[in-house]
Design brief:
Distance between the termini: 71 Å
Number of helices: 17
Number of strands: 12
Order of helices and strands: EHEHEHEHEHEHEHHHEHEHEHEHEHHHH
Radius of gyration: 24 Å
Strand content: 15-25%
Shape: elongated
Structural class: alpha/beta
Largest sheet: 7 strands, parallel
Strand order of the largest sheet: 8-7-9-6-10-11-12
């Protein structure tokens, strides 16, 4: 059975070139036009197809790049491959920046054309299968209204604790969208060249190959996507593109821990809360963070965002500060999941050294608390820890 592909080109020779490729067995449909809107309408009129080839020339490179970008907004799972009549760096760059998976040149790639096309089709099929997997991965969201380094620190240790409890086949990803920017990567002593904003832009072509070649990886095996540390202000991304990326990542990782704060677009936060298997609102006993978390929850409820799977985690718990965890839970109208203890000196030492507390100060109570929390999340038990075996009662005595 032939594989149907669309060929957006002014030169009809490309249609014949592709159909004559050895072992590719293609049914190529030629689509002509100049304006991106025109081409999108012509493509929309076609029945099911597996790939789009798009000719780039010096004269039409900008228009074709616009078409590819708009096509990906509608059909991000269908690969686009650039075509050229000769070596042209300008056309190649325009095609790849717009999101083309590859760039094939007539005359240069004649001998290997069939094998290159088959490789691209296989990668596309694997990526599409991952988007709707038989077993979707789980997403655990950590969110706080007030930006603070404790968000990334907590998410980092939670992701590491989950990775500890899983086999090597169950890969774990940490996505740090919180501010200060790049905190998770800094705390893990990583210097990534590929960041979460890059991944959002690459949502349409995120697959196993991209993960293996571009995603930063910690020595523990944990994959990490973080905001660039030199970013000033809020990271710029479209909420829809972020949520699209998260849906793809859900199919490629067994567990994904996401960190975000109230400075992100509320549509992005609400979308992540709706998507997450469990949402952890991180707060401490300060008036400032408590109020900001209250305002965040108010905004989420105004967005009709369901908080049924949300729970409260109280960070850096200290007795006799006045705001006890149960009081905070009542204020937020959320169930209390747990309270975390730590020695402030150890936490700062961990952040500055680039080593997690799990390896740096193994006896810090934070290590046991986070590991217990990871066990609770992995068990799928929706009951707050406070209702399990009197744990919090013993904790707060």
């Amino acid at each position: 059975m032939k594989t149907k592909v669309l060929v957006v080109a002014d030169d009809p020779g490309f249609e014949h070139w592709l159909e004559s490729a050895d072992d590719a067995n293609l049914d190529a449909v030629l689509i002509r036009g100049t304006e991106p809107s025109q081409l999108l309408q012509a493509v929309a009129a076609q029945s099911r197809y597996d790939m789009v080839f798009c000719e780039f020339t010096s004269a039409n490179a900008m228009l074709r790049a616009s078409f590819v970008e708009q096509f990906h907004e509608r059909h991000w799972q269908i690969p686009v491959v650039g075509l050229g009549n000769g070596e042209n760096a300008e056309c190649l760059l325009a095609a790849m920046r717009a999101g083309a998976r590859d760039f094939l040149v007539r005359g240069r790639d004649d001998a290997t054309l069939g094998s290159q096309i088959n490789r691209l089709l296989k990668r596309s099929a694997a990526s599409t299968a991952a988007v709707v997997p038989a077993r979707s991965g789980q997403i655990f969201l950590t969110v706080s209204g007030h930006p603070h380094e404790s968000i990334a620190f907590f998410a980092e240790h939670l992701a590491l604790a989950i990775a500890e409890k899983q086999g090597p086949a169950d890969r774990v990803l940490l996505v740090d969208l919180a501010t200060p920017s790049g905190a998770a990567a800094i705390f893990l002593n990583l210097n990534p060249t590929y960041n979460v904003l890059d991944a959002v832009n690459d949502a349409h072509r995120c697959d196993q190959t991209l993960i293996d070649t571009a995603f930063p990886k910690h020595g523990s095996g944990l994959y990490v996507l973080s905001l660039p540390e030199d970013l000033l202000g809020r990271g710029s991304f479209e909420p829809e593109q972020l949520l699209k990326l998260m849906q793809v990542l859900r199919g490629l990782f067994a567990y994904t821990v996401v960190a975000i704060d109230g400075h992100a677009p509320i549509a992005a936060v609400a979308g992540l809360v709706d998507m997450a298997d469990r949402t952890l609102l991180l707060s401490d006993q300060s008036i400032l963070k408590s109020r900001h978390n209250k305002y965040l929850l108010r905004a989420l409820r105004a967005q009709d965002c369901s908080l049924e799977r949300a729970s409260l985690v109280v960070d850096n718990y200290r007795r006799r500060l006045g705001l006890e965890p149960r009081n905070l839970a009542e204020l937020f109208e959320l169930p209390l999941l747990t309270a975390l203890h730590t020695e402030s000196f150890n936490r700062l030492l961990s952040m500055n050294s680039g080593e997690p507390l799990f390896t740096l100060v193994k006896k810090d109570p934070y290590c046991g608390d986070v590991r217990d929390l990871a066990t609770t999340l992995l068990s799928g038990d929706m009951k707050p820890v406070a209702q399990q075996q009197g744990f919090l009662d013993r904790l707060l005595r």
